[in-house]
């Protein structure tokens, strides 16, 4: 329900950061998001634009978590952007670039609302958004990029010729020229900014510092822009967080915003969160055994097996497994029932209440700090000393790992012939690749080799593994029903 | 002048500490400095009540999150606790003493002076006169050149002017930068500043620890300046006084920094004949070798290596972790060092070379001076007792510093009275 009339009104507002020019169009592909969307949108647009953007931000976050190189991250992000949030340059023909830009802008501002609420969320949102901006800036058409830069005021001061000559000796260091240094120096423009705006360049000594000002060669300009983007976004998020109570009144938007924020907190792609919520509702204590045999990743199977064998788990085992079950969908009552039953062999009921009940309630956010803890992800399990990722912890004793794999997964089709391939990945320390390969083998009916959990995604979270496994089972069951 | 028995008093005894805090410690000046604004009534002081103080008690218990509305309250409490020393933390968004009652999200370290810490232990691999906790006038040379380099760099490149250098009481030196901009830096900016100023990476092993170039490039201009400063003292400090290459171990370390393997083996052969020849002879021999190099490229390479060696031996070795985060605690000026009994006094960076750690007043000396001066004239108040002791020049210097921090803020307040109103409403 977009209203063109409002757009022309915008122009008349005469804001100085000319966002809408030329017949009310957004003239640049890049945006510093200075101007909020001032038009009507449907609730559906509100949600989809944000969800699509969130997918991309989540991908950027997981790229960082998976230690992807900058080029890889850029590549993955550009591919994802093409799928969910295309944003073409002015030269693109046959495409409604204005609609794309509007969606981009709308999604950004909706997510601001969702992620302004805590410092942690603000920080992560800022990081992901800045990365996205960098990727777009780097891949932008150079002419359009220049036009975009000229349209903004970044508080930089051009260094005059006299000043440039005064510090020639020092500034020359930052020029790279193979042959004629003097010409190169005369051609290079320098800008002066407060050093505090570009800590990254200062840290690496890529600029000349004098009296608190950093002299930035023109080719490092991008850093200033990234810094400006981040700085403006940070200020805007803080301002939004102060104004958010006004939005809180709106019953239609609140659930959407909460949902979005949750998706980010879990630190995983948003589509996985959605599926976890649908599959995970009615899990009871009795179901855990059968679920464990079919759907759990190795780390959680190992914990489950040792819980069954010893009727006990040590602290970190309880913590990791408990949070995993919670996110899987075990309610607090079921969780207490599950743990009480599991410990019954060893400790009496009194002892259980005294020693473990509090911890379980704590992990559900019902005691103490009242924080609803997310389940540990693969990264955290990798670095855990106890009850962590078995691929990593058993790396030095391959025999144990192989027998654990066989005993856990042979019922689902893992054979001794698959082991060398998995062990090779473990040896390369690509534990998540090994885990993903196990998933592919044990779900051979639904996924092919290399597909991972679907769409080439690899395992980054035990809950993601389990949820996807449950989902696949459901799908195949539905198909069987169709056949009948 | 002082009775000898007094020189042997225990600087950690309750009696000594109580007298020191009651009669000598400059709480008033401390308040003036940390509050950054003009002295005001209890209600109006803005920054001081939000500042954390952490005490190390005589039994080594550590009390964090203390805060006081003003210097008078602080003095009372300090006299009650008689801590062996105390540390200054950041300004928080709420009063630190209320930490348990405010929500964690509302309790954040917001501002603090930028601090640097240089400790003699980081020089153990190169100093030849002392090791570990010891320090003498000779190894102070390392600190002196570090102060010169750092003081110039910060003033010239970062443009900060309110620098307070404080002797740490035994073998190190602290720097407090109180400029408004520095005071308000974020952790990221602090980290950038420290990394910018850090050249020597931490590590116990000898070997190359300077890596500041990109390929064959020149040193960045900032380090070029540092090299020049170091060059003035390298000869005296490293080659003559410390005689760093005067032993086999010493010159082997030097040779490990020479990238030209052939030259290194030539020099090793020559030096192994006379391993005890003085450092400056060896250094000159190396210089001559470099001069004789035919290949221009190789010569430049060795010149660069020699610059790196200058940096490795005399560039300030910073304890980076201290400076990176706002919530780091650092010992307050004018505390007593519990082992040496010396006072952590401010030092004038322009006269850093004249400074002799052995001549810093100890608490026993000060108490003896107080005794000699007779009982306090102004009854129960001990306001000006420090004037009668050798602590006077140091407290005068500190007061001057506190005033310089204060004045700028006061001026700003006059020009924009609105800021005052906002502050009042906030607190």
UniProtKB/TrEMBL annotation, chain A:
Q: Does the keyword Transit peptide apply?
A: no
Residues folding into a coiled coil are none
Tell me which PANTHER family the record gives: DNA PRIMASE LARGE SUBUNIT (PTHR10537)
Q: InterPro entries attached here?
A: DNA_primase_C, DNA_primase_lsu_euk, DNA_primase_lsu_euk/arc
Q: Which Gene3D superfamilies match?
A: 1.20.930.80
**Protein known as:** DNA primase large subunit
Q: Which cofactor does it need?
A: [4Fe-4S] cluster
Answer yes or no on keyword Cytoplasm. Answer: no
Function recorded in the entry: DNA primase is the polymerase that synthesizes small RNA primers for the Okazaki fragments made during discontinuous DNA replication.
- What is the species listed in this Swiss-Prot or TrEMBL entry? Lentinula boryana
Q: Which family does it belong to?
A: Belongs to the eukaryotic-type primase large subunit family.
- State a single Pfam family of this protein: DNA_primase_lrg_N
Q: List keywords of the entry alphabetically.
A: 4Fe-4S, DNA replication, DNA-binding, Iron, Iron-sulfur, Metal-binding, Primosome
- In this chain the DNA primase large subunit C-terminal domain maps to 290-465
Classification of source organism? Eukaryota, Fungi, Dikarya, Basidiomycota, Agaricomycotina
UniProt cofactor note:
Binds 1 [4Fe-4S] cluster.
UniProtKB/TrEMBL annotation, chain B:
Which InterPro entries did the record assign? DNA_primase_S, DNA_primase_ssu_euk/arc
Q: What is its EC number?
A: 2.7.7.-
Q: Has the keyword Ribonucleoprotein been applied to this entry?
A: no
Metal-binding in keyword set: yes
Query: What are the transmembrane regions?
Result: none
Looking up Pfam families in the UniProt record yields: DNA_primase_S
Q: Keywords, A to Z?
A: DNA replication, DNA-directed RNA polymerase, Metal-binding, Nucleotidyltransferase, Primosome, Transcription, Transferase
CDD domains assigned to the protein according to its UniProt record, in alphabetical order:
AE_Prim_S, AE_Prim_S_like
Q: Which family does it belong to?
A: Belongs to the eukaryotic-type primase small subunit family.
Identify this protein by name: DNA primase
